[in-house]
């Protein structure tokens, strides 16, 4: 079980702190890793921490733990399995030891647990860390599981000390299955609209518990606040493989974004919960059931943003692209009592810029974290600005044709 990974070191490569949970796992390391005695590990200082690798390991072995790093503790998985046995009608022996570790660090984890009998279970935790922005996923999942329980995997229990939750397996993800059928595509469109409609009475509560406010007025303000970061990102481009966005053009994009916001407001579509990371990996399907997972970027805003983000994902692959129209048709049908087809079509013409901006502002925490100066983050921001530029150009062309 991986407890933590520590950077890329010029001399030592990547360091992984691993706990062997049984005799078999001692020999199950990937080929590029090797076990080392403590005294043979270089005492490398850890970036942004008053510690070193050897001190961290010594603290771990001697049981000196950090409340903000609950998964950098020996035996935490056994603690978890005993807790599951108390939460569910399982004996510890029935839970077994078959655990697939999907994601890991000292402050967050994602595990798939296969009991000896019954469907798989998932445990996810996003414990607070001074060096990571984990968002409000714990709050989002626990709230939505209470308010909109049929649209998320079934919540079976929570570990408040870890900001963790246990879920029943919700089925295969669309990405994992690798294909869609007509009925499944229609189910996805219908369920997305149903979830959005069901969230409308709860928006004040969601906003009051930390869901990001991405309604048009707030989105305008956030984008205005982000302009210095966007300017910094475009000015830091060093490669000439792709033409750089000029500051003047960035300001033009901001003006066109304002116009799109105004148009979308005029249409009068009600705000709803917005997932903000809707892709095939976060849509789970089992028979005629469909649920949505991974709510780390959850917000409140225009519902067409989620539909547009999903369409962007589907259009990227030949397998899924043909089903966009089916999803859109089912989505329209579900909304038709509240929003006309004309409203949806008009909204979709203006939503792309707002959709990209919403995606960008939901990553605002990155810009206020230690990753602010990371070249990879700036490159990612530039890619989003280029998408906005492309969309703005299309909007300008349509305006000329009018």
From TrEMBL:
Residues 182-305 form the Aminoglycoside phosphotransferase domain. Transmembrane segments: none annotated. SUPFAM superfamilies: Protein kinase-like (PK-like). Pfam families: APH. This is Aminoglycoside phosphotransferase domain-containing protein. It comes from Silvibacterium bohemicum. The lineage of its organism: Bacteria, Pseudomonadati, Acidobacteriota, Terriglobia, Terriglobales.
């Amino acid at each position: 079980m991986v407890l933590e990974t520590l950077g890329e070191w010029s001399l030592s490569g990547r360091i992984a702190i691993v706990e062997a949970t049984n005799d078999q796992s001692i020999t199950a390391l990937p080929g590029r890793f090797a076990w080392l005695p403590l005294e043979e590990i270089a005492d490398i200082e850890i970036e942004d921490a008053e510690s070193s690798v050897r001190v961290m390991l010594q603290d771990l072995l001697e049981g000196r733990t950090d409340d903000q790093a609950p998964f950098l503790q020996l035996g935490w998985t056994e603690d978890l399995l005993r807790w599951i046995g108390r939460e569910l009608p399982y004996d510890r022996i029935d839970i077994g030891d078959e655990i697939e570790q999907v994601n890991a660090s000292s402050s967050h984890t994602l595990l798939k647990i296969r009991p000896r009998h019954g469907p798989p279970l998932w445990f996810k935790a996003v414990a607070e860390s001074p060096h990571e922005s984990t968002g409000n996923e714990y709050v989002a999942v626990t709230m939505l599981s209470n308010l909109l329980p049929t649209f998320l995997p079934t919540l079976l229990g929570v570990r408040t000390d870890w900001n963790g939750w246990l879920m029943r397996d919700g089925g295969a993800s669309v990405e994992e299955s690798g294909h869609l059928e007509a009925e499944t595509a229609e189910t996805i469109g219908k369920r997305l609209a149903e979830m959005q409609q069901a969230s409308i009475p709860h928006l004040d509560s969601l906003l009051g518990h930390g869901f990001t406010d991405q309604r048009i007025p707030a989105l305008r303000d956030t984008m205005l606040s982000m302009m210095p970061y966007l300017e910094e990102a475009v000015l830091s481009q060093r490669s000439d493989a792709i033409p750089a966005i000029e500051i003047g053009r960035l300001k033009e994009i901001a003006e066109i974004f304002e116009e799109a916001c105004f148009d979308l407001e005029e249409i009068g579509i009600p705000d709803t919960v917005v997932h903000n990371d809707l892709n095939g990996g976060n849509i789970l399907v089992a028979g005629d059931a469909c649920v949505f997972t991974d709510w780390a970027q959850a917000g409140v805003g225009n519902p067409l943003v989620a539909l547009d983000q999903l369409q962007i994902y589907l259009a990227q692959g030949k397998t899924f692209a043909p089903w966009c129209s089916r999803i859109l048709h089912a989505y329209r049908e579900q909304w038709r009592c509240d929003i006309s087809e004309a409203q949806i079509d008009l909204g979709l013409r203006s939503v792309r810029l707002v959709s990209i901006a919403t995606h960008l502002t939901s990553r605002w925490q990155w810009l206020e974290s230690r990753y602010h100066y990371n070249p990879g983050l700036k490159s990612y921001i530039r890619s989003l600005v280029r998408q906005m530029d492309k969309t703005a150009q299309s909007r300008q062309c349509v305006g000329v044709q009018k």
